[in-house]
Fold these 3 entries.
Entry 1:
Amino acid sequence: MPFISSSRVNAASFSLFKRSMLQDASLPLSDVINDQRWQQVFNKHDIDFGSDPDVIYTPAITLWALISQVFFSGEQRSCKAAVIRVASLWAALGRRVCSTEDKRCQGRIKGVRGG
């Protein structure tokens, strides 16, 4: 089960992905859960989004959320469950979790939907 310690981590860094997924180097898939390798791959393919300070979905967070779905079963594999994990991570990091009741968030939702 993906896990993040309560210590502060840089959400834009792929070390978040590594520390969450790989709690012991002897675990299966340890050879593919390499934060530096993932950073190199994303750099090589110019994958760079979410660089604003208050953005939630950076490449590292997106990868973490996507891969976290693999480690769960049933309803916990859903996109909604992954979004809830991201919100939980954000709250654990002391970041503000946006509520649908919040006017700023409603504006963001409207902007994304083209409304």
Note: Residues 15-113 form one domain.
Entry 2:
Amino acid sequence: MKNSTFAGLALLCSVVPAVYSEVDFWEVTKAEIYDQTADHTVPESAVNWVLYAAVETMDPGDATSVVLEGGNISGSYAFDQDGAYWELLVEYSSAAAMESELPGEDDYRLILTGAGGSITQEFSFGENNFPEIPFLIGEGFSQAAELDLADPLELYWNNPESETAMTVQISEGSLLEGDEFFYEEMDENHIGSWDLGPGLTNELYTGAIEFVHGTNYFGSGFSADGEITFNRLTQFPVQWVNHAVQGDDFNDNTVDTGKWQELFADEGQSLSETNGQLECSSNLNSEGDVAWKWNAGNLSLTQDWSVALDVNCLVDSASMTNREFWFGLALLADGDLDGVMTMEYLLNEWGQR
């Protein structure tokens, strides 16, 4: 392939070699994206098809634009700049749509324009060389959807074929639009113990395993070698929850009265444990309110919360036999007795002590 763009510029502009040498790395990728939906299950078909390309220069000012043209692309695709990094992402509705615009046998051109002119890197994809489909093995899918912050993150996947590179990433939000949270190249078939640190919320993240078949491509135009790769990524939901929250379900005939703390109590009202149950008692001719709090732990991962129980007793002083109990259950942020969620119940005991 004749690099007519660079040859012409070399005759006209002596500063072209400076631009020519400012490319540090470049890559172009055809990718298929899959969704895993169950444990130890290979996804049946791709859900997205993507063209990804990147050009990295030595410094942010080394280029003013980067475009891709060739194949059946109408015109050209312009790259987005992030400092010295230029990226392109094009999504397709099907494998056929991607292959129609990007035939493997056609020629393509990456054109970088800078202060000294433009330089062109030519390439072709050749025959598609996608790796096998990666997927989580064992119970990794269900475990990733409900991870305990107290435990290390450890996932396993199928062993890739020889000469297949692997990466794992976790993104905030969707895979293609979210911010990258964690990324590491792997040479093992599992992720070891990661200390992900405190402060994570319970929002949903997206994990992805990526298998890559790549070919080094001689950088005759950019004077920097690049890569042409065929990638398959399988994404899966990742969510952190806190399983360390403790509670009292009153189902084991024991009550941890040591963790039930009194918030307030009117005269004559009290809380006691009787046969494994919390019971509210009061003097027959007294009315009042009593409340206790159980420390529910770090429900939000950043804020301690408590569950509060409130019992209000009204007595008919005339008959001394008509009582009404109001039971309130509230979820409280520590230090906030107003609560953020309250459930109330009314129990009428007519003719009973």
Note: The chain has two domains: 4-241, 260-349.
Entry 3:
Amino acid sequence: MLMMKEAHMDSLNTKKTRTTDYQLWVKRSGYLTLTIALTILLLKFSAVLATNSSSVLASFTDASMDLLVSVLNFAVLRYALRPADDNHSFGHGKAEAVMALLQAAFLTGAAVLLLTQAFSRFHQTEVVQQLEFGMGITLLCALLTLTLVMAQRWIIKRTGSLAVKADLLHYRSDLLMNLLVIVALFFASQNLLWVDNLVAILICGYLLYSAYELAKEALQHLLDEQLPEEQLLLIEQALLTQPEVLAVEQLKTRQAGPHIFIQLRLVLKDDLSLLASHSIVDKAEQQLMTLYKQAEVIIHAEPYSESELKHKTVQSRKELVT
């Protein structure tokens, strides 16, 4: 009994440590993103005033949206990272998905406005100037963006934060965007001004695609979509490594922010004692928390004689795949 209590305390301590680690790195990501986003915005604003370029204006508009979204993200993350309370028993993680959905809406609106302007400028003669200055500023912005993207990729691997992932989508697209702007300014220096407008349209297309992907993932979280099939198979295979476990039934999963929620039934042999069954369930919980750092696990021990497996109403996911 003492060993079981110690195992339970170890589980709680591990979970608390992982939660603290998640909060620490997500907050650091927020501070870094705000600092770099503001710097890039000021640099691109100076380039817009100097060049009068459609592609630079499109890039500046995207940077403005990035800064706005980063500020909102930072505020929402402070709420999403709050622990569960009496009114929110499963935590506040879905706030990240709500913010991601709003980001998708912002991106879509900005892209549509830029498309309208880019098409209208095909029929106008606009003077693009100070091209070397514009290219230099854009290159500097690209280097700052690359630094941020590398930091965010590392933080996502460590935390799996949807909000940081949403930011990464923006800034990863900014790398391509900055290169396209440099190309557009080069062609503008050769009096091929239509390339500048074409690049602006390409940037808008990428923004629309990013908005679609972001909204899709946010809705998966908000609508409690099941984890991918390969993840469900991984869960089942991990649990079946215990010889006393005959099958996994009624496996249900969902995700909210960093938290993975898993509930299932373990089919066990009829002759196991309550103490032995409890030990098997504890071990199963530890296995799942090893797979998913922020897992909330509910497991019910089901005797074989009462299970769906005995009555042939289910197959294991492994059998279905093979």
Note: The domain at 2-222 is CATH 1.20.1510.10 (Alpha-lytic protease prodomain-like).
